[in-house]
Design brief:
Strand content of chain A: 5-15%
CATH class of chain A: Mainly Alpha
Distance between the termini of chain A: 35 Å
Strand order of the largest sheet of chain A: 1-3-2
CATH topology of chain A: Arc Repressor Mutant, subunit A
Helix content of chain A: 40-55%
Largest interface: A-B, 41 and 42 residues
Number of helices of chain A: 5
CATH superfamily of chain A: Winged helix-like DNA-binding domain superfamily/Winged helix DNA-binding domain
Oligomer: homodimer
CATH architecture of chain A: Orthogonal Bundle
Structural class of chain A: alpha+beta
Chain lengths: ~120, ~120
DNA sequence: TCAGGTACTCACCAAAAAGTAAGTACGGCT
DNA sequence: AGCCGTACTTACTTTTTGGTGAGTACCTGA
């Protein structure tokens, strides 16, 4: 029950891809990691205003299982864990780019607000 | 409460796009409509094995609200309603294509099964 | 006459996803 | 001594999502 009940039979490629990106914060995590290269847990948390620690851990674990992110643990005294995109994570991000462009256009069309995030 | 509580402030374009595609069957509806051009309600239902009438109606309504699909009602005696993609629906589908390709690759990688659908 | 097809709506229920709040082990800083 | 920060885990609750099955109004074909 730790991981998700996914990887099921898919209707098509989009279905398979959506399975992996589904989750309130997953695409944002992807973006954050792509943008910053490597991030620590607390950095991600701060970069994603509103995310709960539980969801962040959960999503990161699933994305690790799905081969999208790499988790590097440093056995140090204040714990340190670094997350980064794997090759598959990078290619997924690239595949997501046109969708992002479409979404940006849509935001302009409907005049949607943007969540303010500071780098 | 009929429609969805969406269109909220978005973090980025992907967020905005995902909002519109989120839902178990939406991407499949998009694909079905793109593939066949125009489809009646029952045709869609038959093309999406496993979808419930409730969800199909609900998703179609939301997609109509979001300007992705066009709903043409013929006031005839056995009711007839035709659904087709709008310009925005078509462009969303195009933006989804690379994601679909990525997903297809992933299916091959992990050896995921495909749901059997007959045309 | 009666099942079957059209395109739905409605009420109810189950499951999944996400949020909340607390706890944990350890050290540094003040 | 006491609080902050690290990176989590755990239990519990709420919200959201999706599924089930019935009902509707009308017509067609067997």
């Amino acid at each position: 029950m730790a991981s998700s009940a996914r990887r099921g039979p898919y209707f098509c490629g989009i279905d398979a891809a959506m399975d992996v990106v589904a989750g309130k914060w997953k695409s944002l995590i992807l973006w954050e990691l792509h943008h910053h290269g490597t991030r620590r847990f607390a950095e991600l948390r701060r970069g994603l205003p509103g995310v709960s620690e539980k969801m962040l851990v959960q999503h990161l674990r699933e994305m690790e299982e799905d081969g999208l992110v790499h988790r590097e643990v440093y056995r140090e005294v204040p714990p340190k864990v670094e997350y980064s995109l794997t090759e598959h994570g990078v290619s997924l991000n690239a595949a997501l780019a046109p969708l992002g462009a479409w979404g940006t256009e849509r935001m302009a069309r409907i005049g949607a607000a943007k969540v303010s995030v500071d780098a």
